[in-house]
Structures are given as structure tokens and as C-alpha cells.
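Take a minute with the sequence and C-alpha cells given here and flag any C-alpha cell that looks odd. Thanks in advance.
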Amino acid sequence: QQQQQQQRFRSASSSSTSEDQQIQELIFEVVEKSQGNGNSKQQALRKILQWTIDERVANVVWKEENSHELMFALLDAFITNINTEEDENLRDLAIAVTTTLLQKQPHRIPPEFHSPLLLKLLSTYCDQTAESVSHCLDILVDIMDPHLCVEELTLGLNSEDGFGPIYVSTLQKTFCKFDNQTLNQLLPEFLPGLFKIFNGTSPLARKSVVICLVELYQRLGSDLTPHLSQLNPSQIRLVQIYI
């Protein structure tokens, strides 16, 4: 009887080892495909999506030792230079997989990948992806460290690439994560970037800043007023119209 028990243990151990090896081989294949051409990247994304939707499979595949490789594979699939319909399909699939991952398996994402995901999503925002990216950002901002989120967005606001309402609206989504005292302390960090966009040429971007400043005033009241002295009279009047 003891020999039978030992045999069953060895058999179970061998089966587990074999399964782990198969999983590692599959993950390696996905990572390889994620670095290939558009078609290979799509195959990799569909496999990651399959592993994300099924909870039983996710428990096996999305282990801590595998999550970094899978996240790198997902990030590699994002492309910003859209030249063909295949590029558009790949971009849309990457956004869809990210949304599903955030909805169904947010705890599988190592925190150090929150910032890269945020930046990838922001870089894919355009008229065609506005709705899907905004929805995905809503979920990501909800689980991400709000201080880190503000830090990343502030860098974007102050860069040439940050001249867009998506940076402002995403920053605005973080406000509910802070109490009034903390939000007030963060003003010197991100207001210069907002004012820089306010002085820009894009009407849509300027409007997003106005909406953002109005929400800040509704939260902080007179604590915001001294900071508004950096605006010109017409900008102040524009903000006051909505207060």
C-alpha cells in the first residue's frame, strides 16, 4: 500500500511538472509572437484574452512568476503609428484585452505595470478610440495609486505630447481619490501643466481645462483662488462663468 501511495505521488508530481512545462512553453510562444509582425501580435493577444476570461485557466496561467512576461507581451502589442487596417485592428484588440484584464483580473497585474499601461492607453487615444480608451482609463485610474497617476499625468501635461484633453480629463478622474487637504497640496504639482494647456491653441483642450478648474473650485472653493492669479483676465472670466 505504501508503494502504491508513493507511485501516485510521483505520478501527480510528474503530471504537475508536465503541466507547468506546457504552460511555460505556451507563454514563451505568446511572448515570441508579441514581438513578431501584426498577425503574430494578434494571435498573442487572443491567447492572453482567452487566458484572462476563463477564471480556472487564469488561476493556472496568471501566476506571479508568469505575470511579468504576459504583461510585457501585452504592452508590446500596443502600436501608436497606425498605417494600415491591420494596425487599427491590432490597436483595438490591445485596448479590448487590457479592458478585459482590468475588469476580470485586476489583481493579476503587478503594480509596476500600472504606469506603463496608463501611458500606452493615453498614446492610443484618438477620435476612433475615444470611447474604448476612456472606459479603460476609468477602470485603471480606479485601481492605480492616485499619487502615481497624478505624477505620470503631470509629466504628460508638461510635455509636447500632453497637449490633449484626455490628459486633463484623466487627471480630473483622480480628484475623487483625495480628500480636500491632499488635493490642495497637489495643486502646485499639476496646475502649471493645466495652465500651459490653457494657453495653448486647441479650443477642445482649453475647454477641458475650464471644466477641470471648475470642479477644483467646487471642491476647494477660495483655496483655489490664489492660484488663478496666474491666468489672464479673460481666462478668469471664462472660468467664473461656469462657477
Observations:
- The two ends are 81 Å apart (CA to CA).
- The chain has twelve helices and no strands.
- The mean pLDDT is 86.
- The CA atoms of residues 214 and 225 lie 11 Å apart.
